[in-house]
Prior knowledge:
Blueprint: E1 41-42, E2 49-56, H1 61-77, E3 80-87, H2 92-105, E4 109-113, H3 115-124, E5 130-135, E6 154-158, H4 163-173, E7 179-184, H5 189-204, E8 208-213, H6 220-229, E9 234-236, H7 241-245, H8 247-257, E10 261-262, H9 266-271, E11 275-278, H10 281-296, E12 314-318, H11 319-324, H12 331-336, E13 342-343
Parallel strand pairs: 2-3, 2-4, 4-5, 5-6, 7-8, 7-9, 9-10, 12-13
Antiparallel strand pairs: 1-3, 11-12
Helix pairs in contact: 1-10, 2-3, 4-5, 6-8
Amino acid sequence: MKKLLSFGAALAVSALALAGCSSGGNTDSGNSSPEGSQSDDAGTSSDASYTVGIIKQMEHPSLTAASDGFKAALEESGLNVKFDDKDANGDKSVAASIAGTFKEQNVDLVLAIGTDSAQAAANAMDETPILFTAVTDPVDAQLVASWEEPGANVTGTSDANPVADQIELITEIVPGAKTVGVVYSPGEPNSVVQVEWVKEAAEKLGIEVVESPSTESSMVKQAAQTLADKGVDAIYVPTDNTVVTSLESVLMVGEDNKIPVFGAEGDSVERGCVATYGLDYYQLGYETGLMAVQILKGEKQPGEIAVATLAEPQLYLNLAGAERMGVTISESLLEQAAPENIFE
Length: 344
């Protein structure tokens, strides 16, 4: 039984050197953050100061972890950085407005967390360096020309999941599973891509995929209940911002109907999903922060930095969640997971 499985769709994260000379930057120590923003300083070793605008698609633990990891990398670099945090609250028009504000403020760099935020930033700015994270397929989202050579002013890190491994994990925990339901938002490009990956993986295992779209967070529970009414053997939740925001409603349906719910990242498992092979979003954000350091120091342009993702997803298990949904985690899986990734 494998511990860490293949991750063909992803590129390995390059080790990014932190050494280098500081250059450029906004030498005005003041920060013209709009009302409601949250700004804080990172590092004081350089005379130059930088303003980094952050657009988060919406509030949920994985996106917050990515933001925290990004800031940590910059804080450790010694650069003098002020962050201007903004939350688009899942509204594309708000994301576009925030991007326009950052353009007017002439920020030194933008971090866009989530596909909608990244597209809003890329549409608003063609010169300001833009880094994205928590974007599944940046080529499909038309953010970069290619994974290897992004070009232009945009690059970043992808949270492309090892979907095939995740679906295979479902069959290991739910032997004999014939149908897997997927709750997703058809309005999120990253989710649509993942559903296609689920179909490809499931077909190879002889599993039928039942889709249940939900365009709003308030509709997520009903979408999950629809899957339960159809008698699916398991429910899979991709890294869909709309659905993950309302994950507890899906878990409730799973527990009430004894249908195991599987997540696509570690935070969802910690919140109650049974298991997954997932990414560490803090680390994903940290790697994005290392890219920002290179750009702010003038060592590289965004278009010169290949899109990256984490090479080794980790196994996450939730024993209490599994019990509530009527399945048991085998000893062999328990032996494969790191202790900090086993939740009880």
